[in-house]
Amino acid sequence: MTALTSIPAGVNWRPWIWVAGICVLFLIARLPVILHEAGSMDEDWFAIPGWTVSQEGIPRVPYAPERNRQSFFWKADVVSLALPPALHYFQAPFFWLFPAGYPTARLPSLLAGMASIVLVYRIGRRMLSDERSAVLAAALYSLSRLCYFPAIVARPDMLCGMFGLAALLLVLKWQAENRWRWLIAAGVCLGVGGLTHPAAIVYAVQLGIWVCLSGSFRQRFLAISTLVGVSMAMLLLWLPLMLTYREIFRVQFFGNVLSRTAPSGDLLTTAWQVFNYQGALAHEHFGAIWLSLLLCGLIWTGWQGIAARDSRSRTLCGLTCLAVGLLIAFEGRHPTKGYWCYPGALLCLCFSQLVGDIANRFGVRSRWAFIALSLLSVASLLPGSGLRATAVYLRHWSDPAYHARTFIREVLKKLPQDGVFAVDPAYVFDVEMSGRETLLGVNVPIYFQVSAFPCDYLIASRYSLKNELPRQLNAVPVASYGDPDNPFTCYVEIFQVTKPAPHVE
């Protein structure tokens, strides 16, 4: 993989207008979902620490007073250190401006998604053969499930991926202009990315390998030393929290992250099993059609790099393969799919390169061929792109049955203020903000066991009902609200806990 040439000076504003339009459409498509949906996908753990940071400077999960040392979230009500805390500090300013709740906690992910779209275009301008392919890559990425899911939830996935794309762009600028400030800025992005999630190691290793592949030994040594030194300096920002809560950090972080990455005995067998597992997850996450198209783009880009001796294609293919392989190795058997947002962006660039190269074979009609192929590509992404959910929420914008915060407020008006409430993850943040004594309605030993605590009421929704939490708490049904058969509407069942479980220290 070699350094790329600099982009000529001068700005053509037409592609930027297209990219701005893509970002606006992305905002219109995703904001209704962010504002209306109840909590999901671990948001019970990732949302409220941002609010506690805004109030007291410490990330905590107040409704999870776990005291089982085998849990990843032991003493999470004191401080949450199971993962690096940067997401919560990005969330905090939004809680100063907007009401506390899941929608506010999701805003950093939404903005990171928009920034990632712009970064895909900027990277495409430097690595693809023409501007229109770069714009297409940004458009496809904005519509894909690779960007859709991580951009609408209060998780660190999208923020982590965004810093990876920013670091990649800065390394490209450093190689083209030989200005060390870009490499220093890339190191900052690597470090801050690592403070969002350990998955940042994927692009840290990827870019570290890349900068070591060109230049003299002295240049390589200085480059990798700069990247490592600056990124490690940024990671030290976490040190005060670690030292203040040493034992909690050791139990939470070591249990949640390091214990999951221990190697097994048969490395080859394990590697094959992990590849199969992550391949199945990718098939489910991308969809069969889109996954096939992306793989075709990757193969074509690699072929162009070898057969046509195109250094840009060779570099893009190499970086993409590295990102995919490193992510699979990092994830192992973990079912999280959101971190595909980083290698997925590179795969979109590869596919856009394929579309552009095919269109160019039509000569004078290449423009119309590119438009036709682009429309077909966009059409292939529409199923599963989340636009149906957007349409539903726009159509029912003021209907409380489709608006989680309004819905749960109306339900809470019918319930007593006193007592201890075990609450489904979908609504636990809102109930905590109502001033009631709240416990997280989860009964999983490695996370939180609500059955170890006495409670008076259970507010159960789809997660709690699916996992039979009412039965585990000896709870008796009292009332239900909403439509259980409509996946877009809110639904809860209220239970009274007749036999409180004993408190366990």
TrEMBL record:
Localization, UniProt: Cell membrane
Name of one Pfam family that matches: PMT_2
GO biological process, one term: lipopolysaccharide biosynthetic process
Keyword Repressor: no
Bilayer disposition of the protein: Multi-pass membrane protein
InterPro entries cross-referenced by the UniProt entry: LipidA_mod_glycosyltrf_83, RgtA/B/C-like
Record key words, sorted: Cell membrane, Glycosyltransferase, Membrane, Transferase, Transmembrane, Transmembrane helix
Residue span(s) of domain Glycosyltransferase RgtA/B/C/D-like: 84-238
Top-level taxon of origin: Bacteria
A GO cellular component annotation in the UniProt record: plasma membrane
Membrane spanning residue stretches: 16-35, 78-98, 158-176, 182-209, 221-241, 285-303
GO terms for MF: pentosyltransferase activity
Keyword Cell membrane attached: yes
Name of the protein described by the UniProt record: 4-amino-4-deoxy-L-arabinose transferase
Organism: Planctomicrobium piriforme
